[in-house]
Amino acid sequence: MDPLEKAVIIANDVTQYHRIFDAKLQINGRLDYEGQGTVLYKDVNDNEFPVFFAEISVDSAYNTTAEGAIEIDDGFMLSPAFQFAGNVRLLASRQELEFDGAARLAHACPDLSTEWLVFNSTIDPDEVLIPVNAAPISQDGKDLISGIVLSGEAPYTGYPAFLTRRQDDEDRPLITATGELRFDRKGQRYLISDPDKWRQENLPGSLIELKREDCALRALGVTNMPYDLGMIQHEMVGETWVDEDGKLRWKGSLALDFLFEEDLLANMAAAMPTWPQAQPLDIFNSNYEYALREWIGLEETDKIISELSMSGTFRRLPKSLEHTMLFTDIEWVWDPYDEMFVSEGPIGVVSLGEQQVFQKVQGKIEWIRSRSGDMMRIYLHGDDMNWYFFDYKLGMMNVTTRDQAFIDLVAEIKPDKRRLKGEERGERFAYQIMMSRRKRDDLVDKYREFE
């Protein structure tokens, strides 16, 4: 039988999902043919893009199948937000086409390169969802990252990224997100998140967004600061972004766990509510609830928040919430000159060990990156007579205060009870009173907020 020219195929005879036109076909039998033809892909705005299928055939289940290729120069758009290049597969029994290649975002952000993200998935033109796994790669096999990124080596810097290449192999994003890449037309933003998270941001999980209009980038979720604080364990949940002045910021909750006597924490917890400028902490205007959802899950968090809503405190602090120090409503800004994150404004003190605090106090938290070892400083300020200063580096926590009862308690603790050896060679932690107030006074003089 002679080949058919300019034929039209409606596939299949039941679903009729696909119309293949301008087809050139060789009929081999009643249920067997092969050839080539074109399908129109129509995006969410009814823009039409022809897809040429060079190989059309019938599979063993008598389904019409077709395979084609789209080149970069074709200018093919999955939607006005995504360009595509690669292979395309049609299966008559499936309404969506399968795309196996790479997509590129259609934005004009000057500080963000537009890379080709490799993926393989069926695509619904009315809601383009591109899978993003934990290790996305570009068309030439390079790692792609998203979010606010800190460099892994000196000089320490930070920069925004959205499916762009690392500036250095050691660079690490503070928050990572997996799931689906989509374009939210209402908010005019690109999003990487799981399907539920982008609709309800206070659910567990991570989200990274890029606004198309002003290129503002924001990430939300469990935060992994690339700091080495030795045997001090830290968990963080928050939001990071670049502000209008180009500064990197993070806001959220921070849980710290390290060796520290419970009586010392109880002493601090009892003192803070008496400080002149201390104010009750409104946890419902912080991200505390969201942080709990990440740390302990939805069900337990709902029970805890219900109890707090009724009484304002716990009958007893749940074991799952016991940390050496638990802070919320911290806002950090990256200082590129001193290569550190430093807090701005009051600090929400949720709890200290087993003790509830729920107070907002003046203070500073500094996390400093250093070639000789990362450092952490915590300063909690009541007034010139009431304050606590923690200074950590290389396994030693020095504590300075004018609280004589606190100093006396530390003196009563045997030195071996204030030291801890880790499982790894050379890993250690210890704390001690540092009688000199020079470092605390230097911090107060530096920021001039505590006079």
Question: What features would you describe in this structure?
Answer:
By secondary structure, the protein is mostly beta strands. It folds into 3 domains: 4-95, no CATH class; 144-222, no CATH class; 227-447, no CATH class. Helices cover 12% and strands 47% of the residues. The protein has 5 helices and 29 strands. The strands form 3 sheets. The chain has a 17-stranded mixed beta sheet that branches. Strand 6 (77-79) and strand 7 form a beta hairpin. Helix 1 runs antiparallel to helix 4 and helix 2 packs antiparallel against helix 3. The radius of gyration is 29 Å and the shape is elongated.
What layout of secondary structure does this protein have?
Elements: E1 4-11, E2 18-29, E3 32-42, E4 48-58, E5 64-70, E6 77-79, E7 82-91, E8 97-105, E9 117-123, E10 130-132, E11 144-150, E12 158-165, E13 172-173, E14 179-184, E15 189-193, E16 207-211, E17 217-223, E18 233-242, E19 248-257, H1 262-271, E20 279-280, H2 288-296, H3 298-311, E21 323-335, E22 340-343, E23 347-353, E24 355-368, E25 375-383, E26 386-393, E27 396-401, H4 404-412, E28 419-421, E29 428-433, H5 438-447
Parallel strand pairs: 27-29
Antiparallel strand pairs: 1-2, 2-3, 3-4, 4-5, 5-7, 6-7, 7-8, 8-9, 10-14, 11-12, 11-13, 14-15, 15-16, 16-17, 17-18, 18-19, 19-21, 20-24, 21-22, 21-23, 22-24, 23-24, 24-25, 25-26, 26-27, 28-29
